[in-house]
Design goal:
It contains 5 helices and 2 strands, in the order H-H-E-H-H-E-H. By secondary structure, it is α+β, with helices and mostly antiparallel strands. The protein has one domain. Strands 1-2 form a two-stranded parallel ribbon. The radius of gyration is 16 Å and the shape is globular.
Length: 138
């Protein structure tokens, strides 16, 4: 395998994601990412494993804190668009802009962004312009 290939980069990101996010279901077994995101999208609570080296919190309670890894899930493409355009917004920001800024600025090593809706070409272009590694769900 070519280590510069996009397939290798995707595999590397998936591996790092699984190492950093210990998502556990109600039975105590580790679940796959797709199942976890489906539970988030259905607004069902999921149980998270609490290891001494891990801390889980909502964006609202993360203000002023830092984390090794952050998973930010936008429920809509409009919410993701607001998060990505934080710097272009005016001084009277609504809560969606602030939440994105807080989520994105907490990550020390890795920030994973997911959107539960298909994103537009405009958002894809914005991700690319920000040099964000982007992997569409094809």
């Amino acid at each position: 395998m070519n280590f510069n290939s996009s397939e290798h980069r995707i595999d590397s990101i998936r591996k790092k994601f699984r190492e950093k996010f210990n998502i556990i279901d109600d039975s105590g077994k580790q679940v796959d990412i797709e199942k976890s995101l489906n539970e988030f999208s259905n607004n069902k609570p999921i149980s998270l494993a609490h290891y001494p080296e891990s801390c889980y919190s909502s964006i609202h309670s993360a203000k002023g804190l830092e984390a090794t890894s952050v998973l930010a899930i936008a429920y809509s493409k409009n919410e993701l668009d607001k998060w990505l355009n934080f710097q272009e917004a005016n001084i009277n920001l609504d809560d969606d802009y602030r939440l994105g800024y807080v989520a994105f600025s907490r990550a020390r090593d890795m920030l994973c962004i997911s959107c539960l809706e298909e994103i537009s070409d405009e958002i894809t272009n914005k991700l690319e312009s920000l040099n964000i590694v982007f992997y569409p769900n094809n």
